[in-house]
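WARN retry 2 of 3 for item q-0093 after timeout on previous attempt; input resubmitted unchanged.
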Amino acid sequence: MKLKLNSIKKCRKCNLYINQLPLLDKKDNCDVMWVGLSAKKVDDIDKNYPLEENTNSGLLIKEIEDKLPSLNYYKTNLVKCLPLDNKGKIRYPSTNEMNKCISNLLIEIEVINPKIMFLLGNNVYNFISKYIEKNNIKLNLPIKYIEHPSYIYVYKKKYKDNYIEKVINEIKKVINMNKVKRCKWVNMNNPLYIKYHDEEWGVPVYDDHKLFEMLILESFQAGLSWECVLNKKEDFEKAYDNFDIDKICNYDDKKINELLNNKNIIRNKLKINASINNSKIFKNIQKEYGSFSNYIWKFTNNKVIYEIGVTSSNLSDTISEDLKRRGMKFVGTTIIYSYLQAVGIINSHDKGCILYKGKE
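OK item q-0093 returned
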């Protein structure tokens, strides 16, 4: 893919070429994205690509790519220009210079949409990973650190084969993951979603803590996608005290305001209030039936229901009505049907999915 770069400017203070923002002709399918730190030359900006084959890094990356020739690769740098010191020698970019470039790299990642991204060396990995964590950025793809190819090629050449094998294995994990047939709703570019589908969705749950967690999360899904909620699951766990039901039942106005000001979760006042209200009713059901698991599974006589292609049923209607009667909010039949699928009371894996079981 050819990059069209904006006009080339040079920062007088840091002697840095400011031409970072790429304008991409089209969105190609990309399997692997390599991200280095900075360019090595600027004599011809149209040829200023990272990891050129005539460099040590480029040679080693090419060896990796040659072993998996059917994949699409994309190379770039965090800083797409040449940082120079006062004597005109190449130097490492400063944190200030990297900060100028990171937002444009994120745009590049979004447009290229790789299945896996490798950050080459400590400098670029430490900066990007810290920036992503600090700003709570969700990239929805595996981000892997590897030692800089140039360092391996020059100083650890005897470990080169092991290095290549390790990187190839990481690539194969992700690519094979994307080739497996799954339910149509799975976003194959979101490893978190894939993991949820493969390991959680449709697996029967009998643990009250997990049943409670999923009920809270499902109630926040109303009007949104489950992927949106799932991407924020870790943030919800932190905000909601790891779904400690006793603590949630006692949330006061101060805690509610804290949740409303937490930009990492879904800040809907009605849903937040409902989560506290529903927690208290959940506990009442536990007292009545010995456990919420006993309550929810009694509707199917402890049997899993196998059905696909619907978003509600007589079963979800019945449970929804009963929960509403008890005072729960955001437990409509569609939400409850989704909940029953999530906790494995209903198994709805598509016929073409690897986890499809059908009626047993």
